[in-house]
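Lab meeting, action items carried over

1. Structure of the two-component assembly. Owner: GW. Status: complete.
Input record:
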Amino acid sequence: MVHALLIACIAVVVFPLYYAFVISTQDIQEVVQRPPRLYPSSHLLENYAEAWRKAHMGRMLFNSFVMGVTVAVGKIVISMLSAFAIVYFDFRGRMFCFWMIFLTLMLPVPVRIMSTYEVVGTLGWINTYQGLTIPLMASATATFLFRQFYMTIPNELAEAAQLDGAGPMRFLFQFLLPLSWANIAALFVVLFIFGWNQYFWPILITNTEAMRTVVIGLEELIPRSGTELPTWNLIMAGAIMALLPPVAVILFMQRWFVKGLVESEK
Amino acid sequence: MQRTVFRSRWLPYLLVFPQMAVTVLFFFWPALKSLQLSVYRVNPFGDSTRFIGLENFAKLLGDPDYYRSVVNSLVFAGSVTVLAVAGSLLMAALATQKIRGLSAYRTLLLWPYGIAPAVSGIIFLFIFHPTYGVLPYFLSFITAYEFNWLLKGWVAMALVVTATAWTHLGYNIAFFVAGLLAIPGAVLEAADVDGAGPLRRFTKIAFPLVSPITFYLVVLNMVFAFFESFGVIDAVTKGGPGDATMIMVYKAYKDGFIGLNAGSSGAQSVILMALVIGLTMLQFKYAEKKVTYR
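Predicted assembly:
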């Protein structure tokens, strides 16, 4: 009984993906035929090759990959450093920095649309990888996650390291970093997906084909006028290629993913 | 709480510098800029600005189009939240029963989280497609009503709601599974001994225990639907048909970038900011509760 219900739920969850895949393997006659054909056909390779060629998938996937990895790594690095400073040093403006970081939680991109765009324009970063990635790197949640983790590490460890003559940077790299790998892996999964799936930001600050990411480029395959041929099989092939990398990251790193998700939202 | 071990005059500043630089440059400065723009009138060429106080806000409040986008946002975020939270609670409850093959089931339920709402929107766009989609085809056997999102506003709304809620499922399920697994087995066994069936055990014991998580997810899903749904709207309906799916963030973008009305867009940003601050505070209230018993 529970199995049957679970299978029904999974069918609901999986169907859209299954259907997209099925369509991506059909030729155009099969796509438009009535009743709809709900099982795969034999045109998988040619559709994917055609979508790859027509939509410049290679370039777009590369850009998305750069965006996902750079945003994730950048966020992790700057959050680790600032959390380290806040936990292990007593300096003027420490609490000020803490609250500044905290307040970024309340300023999501859509809220600052025009003016953030202006800043990036002033810097001359439109259509660049740094414009695509750096503005998204501040992260209150990652900073808090590292801060919380550092606080659970016994103070004696830092004192012992200091007695051994280790400076702060050596302590960070030789003691804290090895202890943080699990958290870093978990965060990486969540942040890579966050970067890969960005839509608003890349659409604002890129306007050339060479800088387009796959999530925004896909939309241009959709026929908007009635006269165009509906190449839905190619669109679905593109959609599958756009969603496969983040989904693969989740499936391969499921354990870390759940940990990262639950912890990063504390 | 506090531990200060290392001493250095300059190192802590160097360490916080990257985070502070990004925060100030891309978060605070633009936010202040929005605040400033909201009280000015900027002409479309950007070469002259004039202080007009709260006139931009007053105009928005008297504008039926803006009012419409507020209602649309509430309908959109409300429906997404109800669908995604209720659906994932049901699925998580099933996926934490003591049965074989659980981890496989859980894996199959989690992955929608990886899919961008815009990509999900494109897939559902085809499922809902009036001539080629599978959904209108099967619905045509039940009713003669034309489920055409190009013409009917509420069908377009249903389309973007479904696509968005679908991508939230994996996220919510992960939280509910974690919460349900944290309930001590002894509590549920005691209820079992007392003769409570699975449904009763869930409604009387498990659900009250996960209610803080539920509230937290309700707020979080609202925030996501309100502020992170630009992609699904832009990729699927562009706010149409008419203004049926014109939600607040999309309107702020359209008025600013396409309508070139910087003042109004700035005022809309400020209103959105106030909303986020309110919702984030709510979220923290429940996040704290969630942590205490986990």
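2. GW to write a short summary for the group page. Key points so far: The mean pLDDT of chain A is 87. DSSP finds 14 helices and no strands in chain A.
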